[in-house]
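Severity: low
Component: inverse-folding endpoint
Summary: output formatting inconsistent between runs
Steps to reproduce: submit the following structure tokens with default settings.
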């Protein structure tokens, strides 16, 4: 099942990906700290994709912040990839399918290989970009009215500079809110980490 292939913790909530679950359809598990302290426990909720199919690798990447969780399925056939957004119900996390599905702006890019959610913003990496394998990271902002919606429209994108064409920029992402670090392992060369300030 590859449970724990990806993990994220924020406050009293942990999310763990299991991309090998159900013949690589995948799943993500949410754990909320019990009153008092953490203890051995089973999941609070299981997150899944409404259109999940074998080989998608849902849960290869996960992120959580506040009442929002995101799980990536970068292997979704035929390599397009997707990132699924989940909004915690008022009563707390429960087994559920996505609130919204985010997709990239081109095909065969492994969109959803990485993501991070902070407040009303989700950043999603698409490191392959079939034309040059340079990679990109796209920003999606929660609509002011109606909450998260399925969309391929992003606010803007980050990409590496010119030069070596093989970067895989967006394989990993991290952010403090004021700055973002993006990994570009560039498997043929030493690799690079890019830092962007707001």
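Observed output (run 2 of 3):
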């Amino acid at each position: 099942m590859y449970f724990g292939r990806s993990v994220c913790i924020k406050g009293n909530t942990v999310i763990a990906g299991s991309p090998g679950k159900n013949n690589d359809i995948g799943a993500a598990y949410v754990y909320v700290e019990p009153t008092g302290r953490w203890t051995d426990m089973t999941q609070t909720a299981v997150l899944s994709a409404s259109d999940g199919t074998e080989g998608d690798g849902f849960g290869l990447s996960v992120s959580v912040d506040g009442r929002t969780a995101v799980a990536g399925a970068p292997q979704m056939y035929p390599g397009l990839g997707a990132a699924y957004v989940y909004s915690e119900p008022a009563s707390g996390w429960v087994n559920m399918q996505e609130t919204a599905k985010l997709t990239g702006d081109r095909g065969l890019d492994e969109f959803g290989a990485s993501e991070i959610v902070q407040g009303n913003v989700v950043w999603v990496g698409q490191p392959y970009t079939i034309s040059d394998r340079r990679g990109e990271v796209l920003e999606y902002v929660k609509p002011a009215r109606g909450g998260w919606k399925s969309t391929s429209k992003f606010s803007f994108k980050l990409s590496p500079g010119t030069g070596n064409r093989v970067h895989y920029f967006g394989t990993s992402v991290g952010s403090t809110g004021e700055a973002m670090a993006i990994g570009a392992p560039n498997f043929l060369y030493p690799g690079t980490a890019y830092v962007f300030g707001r």
